[in-house]
Amino acid sequence: MLETKMTTLGMLCRTARFFERSHQRSHERILDRILARLERIAVVPNETPIQGATVATKTFLRALISHAKLDKYLLFAAPNHVEPIKKAIQAGRNSWAVGDRVKVASFLDLVRWFDTYKINGWLDLEFNFEAPSLLRRRLSSRLFPITVTHHSISYQRLLRNDFIPMVLAESYPFDSIVCTSRSARTAIETILDRTSTEVNRELRVDARFRGRLEVIPFGIDTDRFRPRPKELARSQLGLARELFIILYHGRLSPVDKADLIPLMRVYRELVTSNPKLSLLLVIAGGQAGHYRDSLACYVRESHLNRHVKFIVKPEDPAVIYSAADLFVSPVDNIQESFGLTVVEAMACGLPQVVSDWDGYRDTVIDGQTGFLIPTYWMRCDSDICEAAPLFGPSAIHDHAALAQSVAVDLRVYRERLQQLITNHDLRVEMGRRSRERAVSVFAWEIVMRQYQRLWAEMEATAATSNRSPRSYASSVHPHYYEAFGHNASHEISLATPLRITDAGTRPGSILMQPYQLAYNLKLLDQQLLEVILRAVRLKETNISEIAMTLHGLTEYSTYHSDFVYRHVMWLMKYGLIEIVP
Question: Do 8-219+448-463 and 230-441 agree at the fold level?
Fold first, then answer.
C-alpha cells in the first residue's frame, strides 16, 4: 500500500436546498444524493439531464474513502445538514468500509476550532480554491496543501466566480489544480495566464496562481462497468439478438454536449449501404429542453423509425453498454473536459468511435481501443466573446454558437464505423484492449494512488515551506454589522440591562411552533436558550453578565461569544426578554 504522511483530509460538503426535501428518503439514498454533488444538490425531476459532473463527484468521494485509505476524512457542512449526513454515512458504513474515519462537523465548528482538527490537506471537488485558501490564511497556524478539481471550465461566469478569485488568493507551490486531461490542463493554464495578466494590469498587483497543474483522470468502478453477456443484456432491454447496435449514451444537448444530427446523417448512409444488416442506433440519456423531440422529428423525416431507439435515463448504463456493439460520441462542445461515458464504454469492452476533441484524445487510443475522428474549427468568436457577459449564467447562446462552428469529419466517421461494422475480429480486439486500458488506467484504485502520490509530495513540500506574511484582511470577507448595523433604530451593547417578560415566564414558551424554522436550520440551541432565560429570570442583568455565567458552566464555556449573543437577541426578538426602560 502506498504510504503517505497525510492523515486528515478536510472537505466542504455544500448541500444547500437538499435536506429540506429529503427527510422521507432512506439514509442510503440520502448518502447517494450527498455524493451526487457537494454543491447545489437538489432532487431532480425525471426530465432533467444527468450531468457527467454529478456522476463523477458522487463516485469520486466514494472512491476516495474506499481506496485512498487516509486516516481521517473531515466533511464540513451547514449546521442543519450535519446530522442527516452523519446518519447517511452511518447507514452506508458497512458497504463503504469506512470505520470511524469519516467525521462530520459544521462550518461554525470549523471556524471556531480550526487548528484542533489538525488538517493535513484540503480537497475541494467544485474548483473553489478561494474558500480553503481564505480559511488557511485566516485561521490556520500552519501550512497545508490545497487541492481542487474541476468539471466544466468553459463558462464565462467561471472567470468571475473561480479564476479571478483563484489568482488573487494566497497560493503556494504545494497547492494544486488537478486537471482531468492534457487538453483541460492547457485550457486552464491559458485561462489562468490571461486572467493574471488582465488582473495585474487593471489592479497593479502581483496576482497569479502559484500552485501546480497536475493531470489525473476521473476514475470509474471497473467492477460495475465490465463486459457482460450480450444476449442477457439485450434480453433485459428487450432488444433482439440479431441487431447490430451502435450506442450513444450521454446528455442530449447541442448546447453543452454534442449535436447528434451530423451523426444521424452518417448513420442514414450506413443504413442505406448495409441493407442486409439490422442496424439500430440507441440514443440513451436525459434531454435538455426539446432536443430529443428534434431528433425524433429528424428520425421520422429520414425514415429511420425502425433503426433508432431512444432510452431515457437507463436504469443501469452498464447493461446498455454490454448490449451494444459500438460506442459513438461526436462531442463538439468546449464544455466537455473529460468524457466519462467514453471510459465507461471502454470498461465494458466496447470499441469507441468518437471525435478527436479535448479529453477524448487522452482516453481513446486511436486504432487500438477505437477511432478518433478529426475535428475542425477556426477563430470566429470575437463577437461572442464581447457579448458573453451579457448572456447571463446559463451561457446557452455562446456555447451553442461555438459548438455549431465545430465540424467533425463525417466522411472519416462513416468510414471508421463501416470498418468496425464489417470487421468482427477488429471489434473483438479493440474491445479487449479497451477493457485492459480501463482497468490499468481508469480504475478508481489506480486513480487514487496518483492522488496519494501527489498529496504526499505536496505535504512534504508544505512542511518545509515558509508562509507568506500573514494578512487577515480579505476583499471577500464580509462585515455584515459594520455595513448594515445602521439599519436598526438602536444598538444593543454588552451593558444593556435586560429583564424577563411575562411571556418568558410561561412554561414551554421556547418550544412554540413559530420557532421551528430556527430549530430546523440549527440556528439555535434550545438548552442554551433555556439557560439564558433562567439567568435573566433570576434578576435584571445584561449580556456581559450572561456571558460570564455561561463561561462558568463547563458545557457552555466553549460556545463562540457571538453565538451566545445571537441567542440573547432571539429571546428579545420573540418577546421573552426585554430591555429595562
Answer: yes
Residues 178, 216 contacting (CB under 8 angstroms): yes
Nearest to 82 by CA among 112, 107, 117: 107
Say what the alpha-carbon torsion angle 246, 250, 252, 258 is, to the nearest 10 degrees: -80
Identify the sign of the CA torsion 96, 251, 48, 293. negative
Give residue 514's pLDDT.
57
Count the Cβ atoms, other than its own, within 10 Å of residue 290. Answer: 11
Q: Which of 339, 431, 402, 414 is nearest to 374 (CA)?
A: 414
End-to-end CA distance of the chain: 70
Q: Rounded distance, CA 37 to CA 470, Å?
A: 33
- Tell me the C-alpha distance between 32 and 27, whole Å: 9
Does position 286 have pLDDT exceeding 60, yes or no? yes
* pLDDT tens string 76-114: 888 888 888 888 777 765 555 556 788 888 998 898 889
From residue 116, give the alpha-carbon distance in Å to each of 145, 404, 439: 17, 53, 40
Amino acid identity, position 217: P
Mean pLDDT of the chain: 85
Q: How many residues does the chain have?
A: 581
Q: What mean pLDDT comes out for the span 337-354?
A: 95
Q: DSSP character for 463?
A: H
Identify whether the C-beta of residue 549 lies closer than 8 Å to the C-beta of residue 535: yes
Kindly indicate whether the domain formed by 230-441 is annotated with CATH number 3.40.50.2000.
Answer: yes
* Per-residue pLDDT at 518 exceeds 80: no
Strand positions, DSSP E, 447-547: 497-500, 541-542
Domain ranges of the chain: 8-219+448-463, 230-441, 480-579
Alpha carbons 185 and 179: distance in angstroms, whole number? 5
The closest of 366, 255, 252, 268 to 313, measured between CA atoms, is 252
pTM comes to: 0.84
Which numeric CATH code is attached to 8-219+448-463? Answer: 3.40.50
Distances, alpha carbon 39 to alpha carbons 17, 88, 146, in Å: 10, 17, 18
pLDDT at 440 over 90: yes
What are the tens digits of pLDDT across the range 224-272? Answer: 999 999 999 999 999 999 999 999 999 888 888 899 999 999 999 999 9
For residues 376 and 406, the answer to whether their CB atoms sit within 8 Å is yes
CA separation for the pair 562, 479 (Å, rounded):
14
Which residues share a beta bridge with 333?
none
Q: Exposed, middle or buried by CB within 10 Å (0-12, 13-18, 19+), for 379?
A: exposed
CA distance 320 to 236: 9
Task: Kindly tell me if the per-residue pLDDT of 65 is higher than 50.
Answer: yes
In this prediction, residue 515 carries a pLDDT of 67
What is the pLDDT averaged over residues 12-28? Answer: 40
Cβ atoms 259, 403 nearer than 8 A: yes
**d(C-alpha 53, C-alpha 57), whole Å:** 6
Q: Which three cell numbers stand for residue 190?
A: 491559458
Residue whose entry in the numeric block shows the C-alpha cell 494512488: 449
Among candidate residues 162, 152, 124, 157, the one with its CA nearest the CA of residue 337 = 152
